[in-house]
């Protein structure tokens, strides 16, 4: 079965610019997650969707980050404007349903903000 | 809040050596505990999990036992291979919430 797809693989931008990341979860997976992994740290949950509704966005910096999952399938995470401290790997994951603890992760998008 | 602490890496071993990566946690209640592995260039993959005290998770020769009395979930393997070289993450979640809290990861390097 196809895994979680993410693009782009790498992105380099200057501070104050905007950037968007795309994620396509495994077909049929109802729950989708965006994690931020800063170098030397473990992944941190930014936002969790159940179908096209937000379940948890308590750690999403809403003044600059936004995410959507229209139609409950693929998802886009946007940063506008970017700051230096946003440099990180952005991981997308999906699971079959809410309460199913097995997450499948994509390879991530590595963002460098200069 | 919940947190996971892992031993610092890198852990450098020769092939066939015994592996232990320490993991301790702080959490309310009875979380589920996980080990995820990230091979170079790939996404994180679930390696094993345990959902209650004294449970042992195992997969691919790796084992970890949920020790509530010491709040630990140490990862072990009796004989590592070069192909085990990766970053290993310990994590916890509360059943039904799915919000994984990860440790900082431990890099394992196995030489022939």
Name the descriptors.
heterodimer, A: 114 residues, mainly beta, 7-stranded mixed β-sheet, 4-stranded antiparallel β-sheet, 11 strands, globular, B: 112 residues, 6-stranded mixed β-sheet, 0% helix
Helix-strand blueprint:
The complex is a heterodimer of chains A (114) and B (112).
Chain A: E1 5-7, E2 10-13, E3 19-24, E4 31-37, E5 44-50, E6 53-56, E7 65-68, E8 75-79, E9 88-95, E10 104-105, E11 109-113
Parallel strand pairs in A: 2-11
Antiparallel strand pairs in A: 1-3, 3-8, 4-5, 4-9, 5-6, 7-8, 9-10, 9-11
Chain B: E1 3-6, E2 11-14, E3 19-21, E4 23-26, E5 32-38, E6 45-50, E7 56-59, E8 62-65, E9 75-77, E10 86-93, E11 101-102, E12 106-111
Parallel strand pairs in B: 2-12
Antiparallel strand pairs in B: 1-4, 3-9, 5-6, 5-10, 7-8, 8-9, 10-11, 10-12
Explain what this protein looks like in three dimensions.
- The complex is a heterodimer of chains A (114) and B (112).
- With 114 residues, chain A is mainly beta.
- Helices cover 0% and strands 48% of the residues of chain A.
- Chain A contains no helices and 11 strands.
- Chain A has strands spanning 5-7, 10-13, 19-24, 31-37, 44-50, 53-56, 65-68, 75-79, 88-95, 104-105, 109-113.
- In chain A, strands 2, 4, 5, 6, 9, 10 and 11 form a 7-stranded mixed beta sheet that branches. Chain A has a 4-stranded antiparallel beta sheet with strand order 1-3-8-7, with no helix packed on it.
- Chain A is globular, with a radius of gyration of 13 Å.
- Chain A starts with a strand and ends with a strand.
- The mean pLDDT of chain A is 92.
- With 112 residues, chain B is an all-beta fold.
- Chain B has no helices and 12 strands.
- Chain B has strands at 3-6, 11-14, 19-21, 23-26, 32-38, 45-50, 56-59, 62-65, 75-77, 86-93, 101-102, 106-111.
- In chain B, the strands form 3 sheets. In chain B, strands 2, 5, 6, 10, 11 and 12 form a 6-stranded mixed beta sheet that branches.
- The N and C termini of chain B lie far apart (41 Å).
- The mean pLDDT of chain B is 93.
- The interface between A and B is medium-sized, with 26 and 24 residues.
């Amino acid at each position: 079965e196809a895994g979680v797809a993410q693009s782009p693989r790498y992105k380099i931008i200057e501070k104050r610019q905007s950037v968007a990341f795309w994620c396509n979860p495994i077909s049929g997976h109802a729950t989708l997650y965006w994690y931020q992994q800063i170098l030397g740290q473990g992944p941190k949950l930014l936002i969790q969707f159940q179908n096209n509704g937000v379940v948890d966005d308590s750690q999403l910096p809403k003044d600059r980050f936004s995410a959507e999952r229209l139609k409950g399938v693929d998802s886009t995470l946007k940063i506008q404007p970017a700051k230096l401290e946003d440099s990180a790997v952005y991981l997308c994951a999906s699971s079959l349903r809410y309460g199913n603890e097995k997450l499948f992760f994509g390879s991530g998008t590595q963002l460098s903000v200069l | 809040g919940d947190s996971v602490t892992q031993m610092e890496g890198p852990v450098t071993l020769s092939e066939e050596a015994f592996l232990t990566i320490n993991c301790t946690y702080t959490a309310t209640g009875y979380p589920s505990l996980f080990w995820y592995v990230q091979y170079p260039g790939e996404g994180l993959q679930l390696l094993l999990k345990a959902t209650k005290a004294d449970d042992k998770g195992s997969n691919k020769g790796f084992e970890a036992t949920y020790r509530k009395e010491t709040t630990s979930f140490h990862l072990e393997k009796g004989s590592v291979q070069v192909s085990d070289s990766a970053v290993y993450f310990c994590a916890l979640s509360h059943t039904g919430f799915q919000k994984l809290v990860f440790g900082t990861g431990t890099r394992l390097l196995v030489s022939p």
